Amino acid sequence: MEAGKTSAVLDAFRLKERYIRAFIRRFFNDAHILEDICQETITRALEAEKVRHIETPDAFVFGVARNVVRSQIDAQSRSVLDLVDEFTPDDFIEEGPSVEQTIGDRERMQRFIASVLKLPRQCQRVFILKKVYGYSHREISAKLGISISTIEKHVVAGMKRCREDFDDKSVADLAVVPTSFELRHKRT
Question: Which of 30, 38, 110, 119 could form an S-S bond across to 123 if both were Cys, CB 3.0 to 4.6 Å?
Answer without folding.
Answer: 119
